[in-house]
Design goal:
It contains 2 helices and 15 strands. The protein has 274 residues and is mainly β. The longest helix has 10 residues, at 2-11.
Amino acid sequence: MVVRLAMSLLLLLVPLASTWAKHSDQTPITDGTAHTLNAGEVRVGLFNVETGLFDRLELGTIHLLWLAKVSNLYSKVRIFQSEDISVSLSGGISWVNAREYSDENPDVTIYAVNGGVFFTKLVEPYTLSLGLVVTELGHTDLSAQDVDLNGAGKGTSGLIRPQVQYRLSERTAFVLDGNIQLFQRYEVAASSGMQLNERVRYDVYGNTEVDLSEGLTANITSSVVWSWDTFNLRLGYRYGDFSVPVYDILIPITDENGARKRSGYPIMDLYWRF
């Protein structure tokens, strides 16, 4: 049950395309870079709503996940800015209790937390960016009535996100970006107990760790981003493993025999920035 709910949480994010920004020095692309929204700016799209609290700090949420009863927030803060170099820190969190969907589900909260650092270098007409993101996916303890099942599962992954942007004009930009998984592990620690009678109880404890970093897990995306006064549109094509935005998790694609099978799929996003 917990594994199915965790996968459902991830798959909800799979179709989400990344959000982008207007092509100028005052309003550069913010997704996948160290740039942030300006103070007072608002960005409303198909999937995300973001706002610039200060010139160096933005806050956002995936509004579609709230419809699925998944609470979520993410933010980015720019910690260094020079004429051609920017550095930012990012973070995000989402959580949902299984009983939001059915009272028969166990009282367990599934959560995802991530943190990252982004570097951006301007080399006109190119913008070069590199991100490093670490994500943790887990859940709270479980318990049943007569048989106790207490434990926690925690998955940890890390990836790098290179991006190259070529700004053709303030209206059009070409973007090539990728996601390369560095590691992915899953740890489980659990205990089970059964009350045999009033004086005797049977308890078992155990833990294990599984390394899921088998083979190269990655993807690459080529896209064109158009920007008008407030409206922005991105169309592109992604090849490789499925990428889960915001939480920066890659899901390997396999065939019916469990063999790795990469494929391509189109991506699209549109939003208003004002």
